[in-house]
Automatic annotation (TrEMBL):
Gene: thrC
Co-factor requirement: pyridoxal 5'-phosphate
N6-(pyridoxal phosphate)lysine modification, residue list: K112
Similarity annotation: Belongs to the threonine synthase family.
Protein name (Swiss-Prot/TrEMBL): Threonine synthase
Keywords annotated in UniProt: Lyase, Pyridoxal phosphate
Lineage: superkingdom: Bacteria
First-level EC class: lyase
InterPro entries: Thr_synth_N, Thr_synth_N_sf, Thr_synthase-like, Threonine_Synthase, TrpB-like_PALP, TrpB-like_PALP_sf
Threonine synthase N-terminal domain: residues covered: 2-80
EC number(s) recorded for this UniProt protein: 4.2.3.1
Gene Ontology MF term list: threonine synthase activity
């Protein structure tokens, strides 16, 4: 498999070069040169596999022979051996037509562990095999940072710097990052929003000379390995459903702010997984909902919500979807992104909007509606949703039709967002690993939200 840029100015490259490049050198995002097509027989043969076995089959399609199969198997097995549930991503039934896919059984209790345990091991593998330096630079709205740090902390040949918006992540999310005191970890608390952090990351990676001089590698979902790893659990969730549920139309409702998780579902669907609807669940930062409903992509006023990991206006993976929406026309994508950079707004024509609405349904969940969903499901079925999962479930309740089955992605353990859950008078017991965080000292530095401020820190650290 080779990888190409959504903007068409990078020669096709292999899998390892793609994960090392992260953001394409022309400013675009890397995508596979073609999407493998799966037969019904293949899906049937995969349906009995364990999570690790399934991940190995899917990764093999995209890695080809760059990593020998036995070595790839070890990377996969090591990555998912750290999960607390034997199924890795178990599916639980909420109501007759609604299930949750629990993605929070990894080391940091968030769905990001599923991709980042693998990517961390993959970076370690590449560093050892090529005797190369890996300097990871990432931004987080809360969960990516802790998962990325956990994936590479203490690993020889790897250093990691994570930016997070100062005062705009949950207490547990902050503690998971900043109580790590390994020498190869730097946490920067940036004065601004996650969009500021993400903009800085993309602009530093677009500075190709700086990127190469300091050996910068991407951990955010601009890295194609993140997307590929996340496609696995769509297949696995579908295979876990009862036969009668699989016989119905199966939707996935995905809490999303950066478009990465739902793009992984879109990729799984394009590969041949029989997904009926991809429901895009947002919060009050609802730029993506407006795009699906009106064809207008334009950031609005930033709103702090009870689901802070989705408090994002500019979705970094949106460009990958545009590439497929416009028939893999790199020139068209380049023009659209240039327009967005110049005007801060993109409006697509009616025929493209019809195609978007065939691919996705969307619903923006209001703050109180999010809390209502948490309290309603806790009272009625005894299941505690975190605020992001609650957005996915609320969107499923709103948009799924009678007779359909909907799997809502549960992206984080509720203990990570206790501040929000306590607002409805619900008490929970922290897992032991999270409770222990409150006794540890923190290590972070507050910095200004400019490229130069971050560069100064990176030059010293790397």
């Amino acid at each position: 498999m080779e990888y190409i840029s959504t903007r068409g100015q990078v020669a096709p490259i292999g899998f390892i070069d793609a994960i090392l490049m992260g953001l394409a050198n022309d400013g675009g995002l890397l995508v596979p040169k073609y999407i493998p097509q799966l037969s019904a027989d293949t899906l049937q043969s995969w349906s009995k596999l364990s999570y690790s076995e399934l991940a190995l089959e899917i990764f093999s399609l995209y890695v080809n022979n760059e990593i020998p199969r036995d070595e790839l198997k070890k990377l996969v097995d090591d990555s998912y051996a750290t999960f607390r549930d034997e199924a890795v991503t178990p599916v639980k039934r909420l109501t007759e037509g609604t299930y949750v896919l629990e993605l929070f059984h990894g080391p940091t209790f968030a769905f990001k562990d599923i991709a980042l345990q693998f990517l961390g091991n993959l970076y370690g593998y590449v560093s050892r095999k090529t005797n190369s330096i890996i300097h990871i630079l990432g931004a987080t709205s809360g969960d990516t940072g802790a998962s990325a740090i956990e994936g590479v902390r203490g690993k020889e040949g790897i250093r990691i710097c994570i930016l997070h918006p100062h005062g705009k992540v949950s207490q547990v999310q902050e503690l998971q990052m900043t109580t790590v005191n390994d020498a190869n970890v730097l946490n920067l608390s940036v004065e601004g929003t996650f969009d500021d952090c993400q903009r800085i990351i993309k602009e530093l990676f677009a500075d190709v000379e700086f990127k190469h001089r300091y050996h910068l590698r991407a951990i955010n979902s601009i890295n194609i390995a993140r997307i590929l790893a996340q496609t696995v659990y769509y297949f696995y969730a579908y295979f876990q459903l009862p036969q009668e549920a699989q016989a119905a139309k199966v939707n996935f409702s995905v809490p999303t702010g950066n478009f990465g998780d739902i793009f992984a579902g879109y990729l799984a669907q394009k590969m041949g997984l029989p997904i009926n609807k991809l429901i895009l669940a947002t919060n009050e930062n609802n730029i993506l909902e407006r795009f699906v409903k009106e064809g207008v992509y334009q950031p609005g006023e930033f709103r702090g919500t009870y689901s802070p990991s989705m408090d994002i206006q500019v979705a970094s993976n949106f460009e990958r979807y545009l590439f497929y929406l416009y028939g893999e026309d790199a020139a068209a994508v380049t023009a659209i992104m240039a327009q967005f950079k110049a005007e801060g707004r993109v409006v697509i024509p009616a025929d493209k909007l019809a195609a978007v609405q065939a691919d996705f349904a969307a619903y923006g969940v209001q703050n109180e509606e999010c809390l209502d969903t948490i309290s309603d499901y806790h009272a009625q079925v005894g299941y505690l949703l975190d605020p992001h999962t609650a957005c996915g479930v609320a969107a499923a309740d709103k948009l799924a039709s009678a007779g359909e089955v909907t799997v809502a992605l549960s992206t984080a353990h509720p203990a990570k967002f206790d501040e929000s859950i306590r607002l409805r008078g619900i008490a929970q017991t922290y897992p032991e690993q999270i409770q222990a965080l409150f006794e540890k000292p923190q290590f972070q530095k507050v910095v200004g939200g400019s490229n130069e401020a971050i560069k100064d820190e990176l030059v010293t650290f790397f």
